[in-house]
Specification:
The chain is built from 24 helices and 17 strands. By secondary structure, the protein is an alpha/beta fold.
């Protein structure tokens, strides 16, 4: 039964999964100007596919799902104010669903619909190959319909299409930091926006593109993409999280972005048996049977997607929009598939953890100048005895230069306030020691084995802890490698039945998703060497804290903060 609720926030679509299962477009109902929508559809439907035998018109070759997007984006209208409602739209759709071709056709339709003179429109692609294909599709659509040559002028060398009547032009460009100059575009379409998660200064460019949003003219933005073939990062992580929040009714009362996300629910993404079942693929492939041959898709999976775990990760991310990271990792840590199901929204930070805990342990994983440093605090909850988790990481500025591949992720974690950028090792150590001190002063640490360190490279931190009165036996070394077996194998069991919950920190989910697990002798190990360049520091800190919590500690006797401060002042 369809969910109808007049009190839902704008663009919320709580029945999106039901819609997908019924073959409908997974988006909220949007009021439209029927006259404007009819004009847009009439033009769009006459455009022909230039690279298909017989050049069928989009009236026959395009699925209704994209026509729904076209009408919502170009013809939305508040019935009371008569103003546009959809200023932004994010469409997540798997590979080979004619995304680039449809985007080219939508761009031409928008150019035809725009009556204001001498405006600028953009189609932005992440690479030259994609931008050239997009422009070629639009150009050929014009060439195979002689009447369109009377409407548009094509300047191939500029990758520009101009409407004769208005002088407004549609430019197809490859992404760089100078794509927006002068006037803010009235419309910008960004193809494969997930690639911008890897691009430096992408957030700044998006701000430029959106600069028209606060002017009277305003500017529309349509983003369309497959899922990333790596864990979502940077601007892609931001936009995807925003779209999901709006879809789920958590994006505020009047958002301007309409989400259209072809993806499985989180519980089905982490259930590998579910998404590997070919009977379920059609739910999130709107062009199955059109641009996608069902038999060819199965053959490609069997012959290419299943070659090894890494190949399957990439294949599933591109063809089924399975998010790499938590829930999809091939040889990933066994606890990863349960991580997202163990979120406690009330666990908002360290203070909340301390209030709810009867005892705490702290794990530390310390890094050098080109690495991350991390601590993780585990609390044993009063009454329930569940574990509660919260952590923080540190990085030097050099990490952003030396590890450019993960720099967008790190910048986002810094914005989340889960990562602190420190100018020196001493500053890092002092900041981490201050957190340990806060837990210490709460009286929740045991007298012995309360702060567990990987013994490598921790001299500065040990000194900082000692300066604050935290020494052995409170501070102890935790053996690494196969000796972490208890934590590596037992923490997943606690996650499986929610005897361990956490506050949903993105940096921790990223670390969990990066971890690779391998069998060494008779023990499973998760180490930085096994996981490669991916950062797992937060998870290693968790393991260290877990090894201490498995000792079933009790909090020290009532802590006399004033006496302690006096003795170490």
């Amino acid at each position: 039964m369809r969910i109808i609720d007049d009190d839902l926030p704008r663009f919320a679509c709580p029945d999106w999964w039901e819609k997908l299962q019924n073959g409908q477009t997974p988006m909220a109902d949007v009021p439209i100007n029927k006259t404007k929508a009819a004009k847009a559809l009439a033009f769009f439907n006459r455009l022909r596919l230039p690279d298909v035998p017989g050049n069928p018109p989009l009236a026959e070759a395009c699925g209704d799902w994209f026509r729904d997007i076209l009408c919502a984006f170009l013809a939305s209208e508040d019935p009371d104010t008569k103003r546009r409602l959809v200023w932004e739209l994010l469409c997540l759709v798997p590979k080979k669903n004619s995304k680039t071709t449809y985007v080219a056709a939508l761009g031409l339709t928008a150019l035809f619909m725009e009556e204001a003179p001498n405006r600028q429109m953009l189609i932005v692609a992440p690479s030259q190959n994609i931008s050239e294909r997009c422009f070629s599709q639009a150009q050929l659509m014009i060439e195979i319909d002689l009447k369109l040559s009377d409407i548009f002028k094509v300047e191939e060398y500029k990758k520009s299409i101009i409407r004769h009547k208005t002088g407004t032009q549609l430019d197809v460009k490859t992404f760089d930091t100078s794509i927006v100059t002068g006037e803010i575009p009235v419309l910008t379409i960004i193809d494969e926006v997930h690639e911008l998660g890897k691009a430096a200064k992408a957030a700044k460019v998006m701000q430029q593109i959106r600069g028209g949003g606060i002017t009277k003219q305003r500017g529309q933005v349509l983003m369309i993409s497959t899922q990333s073939d790596e864990a979502p990062a940077g601007i892609w992580r931001t936009e995807l999280d925003k779209a999901r929040a709006i879809r789920d009714g958590k994006g505020g009362s009047s958002p301007i972005m309409l989400p259209v996300l072809y993806e499985f629910p989180r519980e089905n993404q982490v259930n590998q048996e579910y998404w590997r079942n070919k009977e379920n693929w059609g739910f999130i492939l709107p062009n199955l049977g059109r641009s996608i041959d069902p038999d060819a898709l199965v053959d490609d999976y069997e012959n290419n997607g299943k070659v090894n775990a890494e190949a399957e990760q990439i294949w599933a991310s591109q063809h089924l929009n399975i998010e790499i990271g938590v829930g999809l990792g091939g040889d990933g840590w066994s606890g990863a598939i349960h991580w997202e199901n163990c979120v406690d929204e009330k666990l908002t930070g360290l203070d909340a953890l301390l209030r709810r805990s009867e005892v705490c342990t702290i794990g530390v994983d310390w890094g050098g100048a080109d690495d991350l440093a991390a601590i993780y605090v585990l609390g044993r909850e009063k009454g329930s005895k569940r574990w509660l988790g919260w952590g923080r990481a540190w990085a030097r500025p050099t990490v952003f230069e030396q590890r450019k591949k993960i720099a967008p992720n790190l910048k986002q974690f810094e914005a989340d306030e889960d990562l602190v950028v420190s100018t020196s090792g001493e500053e890092q150590a002092a900041s981490a020691a201050a957190i340990c001190l806060k837990v210490f002063k709460s009286g929740l640490l045991p007298e012995q084995n309360g702060i567990g360190l990987d013994s490598a490279g921790v001299a500065l931190l040990v000194d900082a802890l000692e300066d604050l009165g935290m020494t052995q036996p409170l501070v102890t070394a935790v053996m690494q490698g196969w000796k972490l077996q208890t934590a590596i194998s037992s923490v997943p069991l606690k996650l499986e039945d929610r005897r361990f919950v956490h506050g949903d920190q993105p940096i921790m989910a990223w670390s969990v998703g990066n971890a690779k697990q391998t069998l060494k002798g008779s023990n499973y190990v998760v180490t930085k060497e096994v996981s490669g360049a991916a950062k797992i520091d937060m998870l290693m800190a968790l393991f260290n804290a877990a090894m201490l919590m498995f000792q079933n500690p009790e909090a020290a006797a009532a802590f006399d903060a004033e006496a302690w401060i006096a003795s170490y002042a």
